[in-house]
From TrEMBL:
The lineage of its organism: Bacteria, Pseudomonadati, Gemmatimonadota, Gemmatimonadia, Gemmatimonadales. It comes from the Bacteria. This is DUF488 domain-containing protein. It comes from Roseisolibacter agri.
């Protein structure tokens, strides 16, 4: 069985975020934000990749697995059912399926990954739906990390 983790950076700082990833033995952070920018210091694409490199974690951005703008607006407004409908429709697109193929290949190669998005609560984030879609393709154990707590063994 393959294993993946997911993580959100909402409400955390870079040091705690990196600690959660290293505690979970993550080798590759897969950024699944449509836009890999952030107003939070240290979490925009270039700076995030540099921060990860300091602890020996690789970075990969799979833009096609991000949430479309209308889905992000629904998430910000707390309309999680609407987010789900929008994201699942997006996940069926050719672009998203191509990046899902890439993600599946990474997981099959045995690299310990974490899927990254913003929301702290994975149930309010598309990364849970993405992990579930990946689990439809291969046997998968999913762990949701929280930067302020150590992962379960």
């Amino acid at each position: 069985m393959h294993e993946i983790t997911t993580i959100g950076y909402e409400g955390t700082n870079v040091a705690d975020f990196l600690q959660a990833l290293t505690d979970a033995r993550v080798a590759l952070l897969v950024d699944v934000r449509a836009l890999a920018s952030s107003r939070r210091p240290g979490f925009a694409k270039t700076r995030l990749a540099a921060n990860l490199q300091t602890v020996g974690i690789e970075y990969r951005h799979l833009r096609g697995l991000g949430t479309p703008a209308d889905g992000r607006a629904a998430a910000r407004a707390g309309r999680h059912g609407e987010l789900r409908d929008i994201y699942l429709a997006h996940l069926a697109t050719d672009t998203a399926q191509a990046d899902l193929d890439v993600l599946e290949g990474i997981v099959r190669d045995g690299k310990r990954i974490a899927l990254l998005c913003f929301e702290a609560d994975p149930s309010h984030c598309h990364r849970s739906m993405l992990a579930d879609a990946l689990a439809q393709r291969l046997p998968l154990r999913i762990e949701h990390l929280a930067p302020h707590q150590a992962p379960k063994d």
